Amino acid sequence: MSQDMSTHQPATTEETEPEEASAPLPAARRPRRPPWALRALWSAWSQGWRQRHPRGAQVLSVTLTVLAAALVVAALVMPDSVARLEPGAFLRLPAEAVVGAAVLLALPRRPRVAVAAVSGVLLGAMTVLNALDMGFNQYLGRKFNVILDWSLFGDAESYMEDSLGRTATLAAVAGVITLVLLLLVLLALSVVRVSGVLARHPGTATRGTLVAGVVWITCSSLGLQVAGVPLASDRTATALRDQTRRVSDTLHDEAEFRKVARVDAFGNTPGSQLVPDLRGKDMIFTFIESYGRSAIEDPIMAPGVDRTLDVRTKALAKAGFHARSGWLTSATYGGSSWLGHSTTMSGLWISNQQRYRTVMASDHMSLTDAFKKTGAFDTVGVMPGVQKGWPEQKWYGLDKVYNAFRLGYRGPKFSWSTMPDQYTLQQYQERVHSKRPTAGRSRMSLLILTSSHQPWAPIPKMVGWDRLGDGSVFKDIEAAGNKPADIIADTTRSREEYGKSIQYSVTALTEWLERYGSEDTVLVFLGDHQPIARVSGDHASRDVPVSVVAKDPKVLDRIADWGWTDGLRPAHDAPVWKMSAFRDRFLTAYGSTPHPKTN
């Protein structure tokens, strides 16, 4: 009776105050209905609906409970790799669910609801981190670092905007944010609902929890599996330990790496004793975006790329140039190209953003800065991928840098790439290479080519070097090319187009060398990292090709003991070095004298 009176209390109030009911207040003055009143109305409506449809209410209640439990279990056992994302991975018994049920059964109502809600939110956060691990594994070949990797989301958004457009990017970002919030709310509500069911049936729930615990221990002890997947799971607990360890390792690594960065085998070498065997040379270092070992050895990409490398080796030989090539193991994978650039140039293993910032703020000598310190070289950088301030110029020791806005390009962007590599190289020729260095000096150049950057659509085509102009010639080529959205979602086409982009970049660079290189030109070119795992494969190495090209036979004689392969295509069994070993080996090969710096 009291419940019915409570339910109908608002109506009774209206009946006892007819004057107010007949003269409602204006909207601006009408008092808001308090939250407790809204809850009362909802309770009254839902109770009435249950009374009118008892069968439907029961089915709905059971369905919601099953869905809530399924969502919680799925979140607890979800793998951290796309390759393991299959139905069998979700048919597991999570230890966290057994322990959680035992804890919730032991708590009074209010603490139980609070613990369940907080646990659901935390499980949602772990699920988001797990999804980030999946994405980072797929694209960068590593897991998400909760301390260092937040800054990469800005780069990811810029990449999506360049590839798919601003509208699609804003929609995707809004969708992701909505999905994350929805996941947190749904998991919190799901754990609360499941805990309520456990509390209403304590005897059955207790026996079920004990049985589940025994089953988990048995499966774990015997190593029972289904389709190669263990039945007993502690996936979320393991992920939490991994995240905790990753945070601890990151904090510890910062202090340790600062010590490592202060040690430099050539840090106190006088300029007069740096690269004496390259004095008078036209020295060029070039990175080709995403130029990895897979381009040369994968069965889909390799035929076209290998054919291009062989053809260009012969063309260069006809022009008097010869090459030797090997492999370097990059410090990064699938992206974060700047880590590969700085690792090559610093002689340090710069595998994350924290190490990168540490080195950029240090006086550890870069390979390019070594040429500047000689006093015998002008130093210049050509960076078509740089579209904002670039304070790293100082650490690289570059007198002048041409970024995307200083190369006079008036053609279309090719997805992320601001301009085709052929245009970049022609502008380098006109603005830098064709000009005389400062009197008595030579020149050292650092070029970063971008046309082979994902999503590999559209891809530029070679045009006559005398037709390049301001780049407008590429408008029709860009318009006729593939759309990024058509390539991104298709793994096979991505691999095919990636191979074509490498062919284009290698052709543009070597044609430039054939056309404009001199007797003194020495070109070192290499990849910065492998392409994303979806293209290179889940178990691909981190190796990238590296080549030294020159006309002067003495230049290649200096590296004869490296065991590298003749030509632009390194043999499968050619030596593999860590990318961080290149700087010191190069400096030593060309006559530099070590004078260590240790503080």
UniProtKB/TrEMBL annotation:
Residues 1-31 are annotated as: Disordered. Keywords: Membrane, Transmembrane, Transmembrane helix. InterPro entries: Alkaline_phosphatase_core_sf (IPR017850). The chain crosses the membrane at residues 59-77, 89-107, 114-132, 168-189, 210-232. This is CDP-alcohol phosphatidyltransferase. Gene3D superfamilies: Alkaline Phosphatase, subunit A. The keyword Transferase does not apply. It comes from the Bacteria.
